[in-house]
Amino acid sequence: MNPLLTPFDTAPFSKIENSHFKPAFLQAMEEARAEIDQITANEEVPSFENTIEALEFSGQQLDRISSVFFNLNSAETNEEIQKIAQEVSPLLSEFSNDITLNEALFKRIKNVYDQKDSLNLSVEQQTLLDKKYKSFSRNGANLDEDKKKRLREIDAQLSKLKLKFGENVLAETNKYEMHLTNENDLDGLPEGEKEAAAQMAKAKDKEGWLVTLDYPSYIPFMKYAKNRELRKKLALAFGSKAFHGDELDNQENVLSIANLRYERANLLSYKTHAHFVLEERMAETPEKVYEFLNELLVKAKPAAQKEFDQLEDFAKELDSIDQLEKWDGSYYSEKLKQKLFNLDDEKLKPYFKLENVISGVFKVAEKLFDLKFEEVTDIDKYHEEVKTYKVYDTSNNFISVFYADFHPRKGKRGGAWMTSYKPQYRRNGDNVRPHVSNVCNFTRSTPSKPSLLTFNEVTTLFHEFGHGLHGMLANTTYPSLSGTSVFWDFVELPSQVMENWCYEQEALELFATHYETGEVIPMELVQKIKESATFQEGMQTLRQLSFGLLDMSWHGVDPTGITSVKQHESEAFKGTNLYPETDETCMSTAFSHIFQGGYSSGYYSYKWAEVLDADAFAYFKEKGIFNKEVATKFKDNVLSKGGTENPMTLYKRFRGAEPKVEALLERAGLLN
Ligand SMILES: [Zn+2]
Predict the structure, then answer these.
(1) Which of 475, 505, 467 is closest to 609 using CA atoms?
(2) Mean of pLDDT values over 480-484
(3) Nearest to residue 582, comparing CAs of 244, 310, 240?
(4) Is the dihedral of CA 560, 563, 564, 568 positive or negative?
(5) What whole-number distance in Å separates Cα of residue 598 and Cα of residue 7?
(6) Cα(467) to centroid of ligand 1, in Å?
(7) What is the average pLDDT score of the chain?
(8) Which of 595, 564, 569 has its CA nearest to residue 582?
(9) Which among 489, 479, 441 has a CA at the least distance from the CA of 74?
(10) Helix or strand or coil: residue 651?
(11) Tally of CB atoms within 10 A around 13
(12) 520 secondary structure, DSSP code
C-alpha cells in the first residue's frame, strides 16, 4: 500500500519511503489528466461550475504529493530524493504545459470568460475566472498558429539564454581566486575569517590564503581588509563578472534576453515586457513603478549624499582618503558603525533564547489575532527535531496545523522559509484547514548553552511566522487563491509587518529576557538596535532604487535600439551614483535576479513591500501595537483574504487609504 496514494490528513512521513514517490506521482498525474479529460468531454454548456471550478479542484492529490515531496527536498533531502526530483520535475512541467496548451479546455474557459459579466459571480469567483483565463492567454492561447509557433520559439530561446546567463555568472565566480601569501595582506580580518581563507587554500593544496568571489569570502574581505589595493582588486573582479569579452561574457545574452522579452510582450499585445509582468502585480503599470521609484529617489538622495559625505570625512580623518571609491564603502561603513553603536550580536544574544522567542511570537499572535498554539506529539513528522502544533482560536475552533523546524542539518538547504503541506479551502460545506510550516537554520543548543538567536535571526523568525499567519488564517473558497497565493509585490506585507514588533519595548517585554538572570532587555539596548537598523539608510535606499531603475530600464522600454550594455547601464545609473564610475565593471552582465531569476520588472517590489509594511505598522503604532480593532481589520481584510481580490482594494479596506511612502521615510530617518 502506497501511503501517498491513500487519503491522508497530515502528511504520513513515517510511513513514506523514497520508493513511494515516483509511482505516486505517476498515478496522481494520470488521475489529474483524467479529471481534465472529464471537463473537456462534458457535453453540457460550459459553466463556471463545470469548467472553472472543476479545473480548480482537479489534481488535488497531485498537489498534496508534490508539497510533501518538494518540502522534503528542501528541508530533509538526500541523494535519492534529489535524483527523484530530477526525474519527476520534467514530467511535472510537461503535465502543466499539456494543460496550458489544451485547446479544448481553453475553448471552454474562454466561453465562460466571455460571458463573465452576466454570470452573477462573486468577487472571488471573478478573480478565479480571471486568473484561470490569463494563465492561458498569457501563454499565447489566443494567438493564431504562426504567432503561437513564434511564442514557443521565444520561450525555448529564453530558457536557454537564461540558463547560459546563469552558467556564465557561476563559472566567472568559480574561476576567480585571490591567492595571498603574506599574512599582512589579511590585516583587519577577524580570526575566523582568516582561518576560513587558510582552509580554502589548504583544500586546494596551496600555501597561505585564498579569497574568492563567493559571498561568504568576498563580503568579509570588503568589510574588514585594511589593504586598499587588494580591496580594489577584489571589487573590480567582483564587479566585472561576465564582462571580459571572452566566451563567458554576458553582454550579448543581456541584449538578446531583453529583446526577446520585448518581442514576446508585443506578440501578446503588451507595450513592453514590464507592461506584461505588471498586469499581475499590485503596482499594475510601469508608470506607477517609475513614479514610485522616483518619489523615493527624491526623498532619499539628499540623505544618501549626506551619509556619503560623512563617510568620506570619516575615511579622510582615519586614513587620509580623499576620494571614497566603491571598494571603500563597506570597510569604512563597518568602522563607523562600530564607532557609533558599538553593538554586537554577543551582547544581544543572551536575551533571545530560542524557546523564549517562540513563545514570544505566539504571545504576539494571541494578543493580535486570538490564536492559541498547543504543542502536540501525535502528528507525524519528518525529523525528530521538528515541532508540531495545533492552532486554535479563543472559541476553540481548530485553525491550522503548524510545523516548526528550526536548526540546520545536512540535507536542509540554507536560509529560512514558510511553506505549506495543505492549503485552506472550502468545499461541500467544509472549511478545510491548512497545514503550514516554518523552516529555519538557527544555531542549535550545546550541552552548556541553549540556542541563543542573533537579532537578525529573531526578525527572521517573526518574518517567516508572518508568512505562516497568512497561510494559517486563510479563509477563502478556492485553494489557488488561498493564503500566500497573492501578487508578488503583496506577499511580503504580512511577513515584513511582523518584524516591526521585534523593535517595540512593549512586545520585547513579553519574551526578551536574559536566559540566565531573567532580566528584561534594557531599553538602552533596544534604542541602539533601532538606531543601528537605520544606519546609512539613505545610501541603502539609493542602492536598491538604482537596481530597480536598472531593471526597469531594460524591461520598461523598447530595447531594440540598445547596442552598448555598459553605456545603457551608465545612463540608467546616472541619478543614483555616489561613487565615481568604473569603466571595468558592469552590473547587468551578472544581474541574475532579473536576467536569470524571476525578478524582471519586479526588483522594485523589495522597496514596495517596505512601504506597505511601514504604512501598515504606522496604523498599529497610532492606535497601539496590540490594538484589537486594527489587528482584526488586518486579519479580516488582508490575512484571511489571500488573493481573492485586488490587493490594493484589500489594503484600502484595512487602512482606509492607499499606502503612502511617508511612514517608511520616517522609520528610515529620511524625513529630515
Ligand atoms: Zn518573506
Answers:
(1) 467
(2) 98
(3) 240
(4) negative
(5) 35
(6) 7
(7) 96
(8) 569
(9) 441
(10) helix
(11) 17
(12) B
Please indicate whether residue 464 is annotated as part of the active site.
yes
In the block, cell 511577513 appears at 495
| Cβ atoms 507, 471 nearer than 8 A | no
User: What's the N-to-C CA distance of the chain in angstroms?
Assistant: 68
Asked whether the beta carbons of 286 and 601 are under 8 A apart, the reply is yes
CB-side neighbour CA atoms (13 Å) of 624:
6
Residue range 24-58, pLDDT digits in tens: 999 999 999 999 999 999 999 999 999 999 999 99
Residue located via cell numbers 570597510: 331
pLDDT in tens, 175-213: 999 999 999 999 999 998 999 999 999 999 999 999 999
How remote is the C-alpha of 171 from its chain's centroid?
Answer: 25
* Residue appearing with cell numbers 517596505: 610
φ, ψ dihedrals at 67, nearest 5°:
-60, -50
CA of 460 to the centre of ligand 1 (A): 9
Grid look-up 504580512 returns: 494
CA 494 to chain centre: 13
At 245-295, the pLDDT tens digits run 999 999 999 999 999 999 999 999 999 999 999 999 999 999 999 999 999
Helix residue ranges, H only, 342-427: 345-348, 354-369
Which amino acid is it at 539?
A: M
Half-sphere CA count of 633, side-chain side, radius 13 A: 16
Closest C-alpha among 500, 449, 437, 486 to residue 626: 500
The one-letter amino acid at 460 = T
Span from the CA of 466 to the centroid of ligand 1 (angstroms): 8
In SS3 terms, 287-314 reads as HHHHHHHHHHHHHHHHHHHHHHHHHHHH
Q: State which residues have CB under 5 angstroms from ligand 1, the bound ion.
A: 495
Residue among 141, 155, 133 nearest 257 (CA): 155
Containing 211, the helix (H) or strand (E) segment is strand 209-212
Cα atoms in the Cβ-side hemisphere of radius 13 Å centred on 156:
6
Find all residues with CB under 8 Å of 452, minimum gap 6, and list them: 349, 350, 352, 353, 354, 443, 515
- Cα of 270 vs centre of ligand 1, distance in Å, is 30
Within 13 Å, how many C-alpha atoms sit on residue 327's CB side?
19
Q: Residue 288's closest CA among 556, 10, 56?
A: 556
Neighbours of 191 (CB within 10 A): 7
Distance CA 206, CA 204 (A): 6
Question: For residue 631, how far is its CA from the centre of ligand 1 (angstroms)?
Answer: 20
Q: CA angle, 355 as apex, 349 and 356 as ends, to 5°? A: 65
Look-up: residue for cell 535519492? 80
| SS3 assignment, position 430 | strand
Q: Looking at 464, 499, 504, 645, which residue is catalytic?
A: 464
Cβ atoms of 589 and 311 closer than 8 Å: no
Element (H, E) at 432: strand 430-432
CA of 14 to the centre of ligand 1 (A): 30
Distance 464 CA to ligand 1 centre (A): 6
The rounded radius of gyration (Å) of the Cα atoms in the chain is 26
Cell numbers given for 528: 541602539
Which is nearest to 414 in space by CA: 363, 346, 460, 372? 460
C-alpha neighbours within 13 Å on the C-beta side of residue 181:
2
Candidates 171, 219, 133, 273; CA nearest to 598 is 273
The alpha carbon of 417 and the centre of ligand 1 are apart by a number of angstroms equal to 7
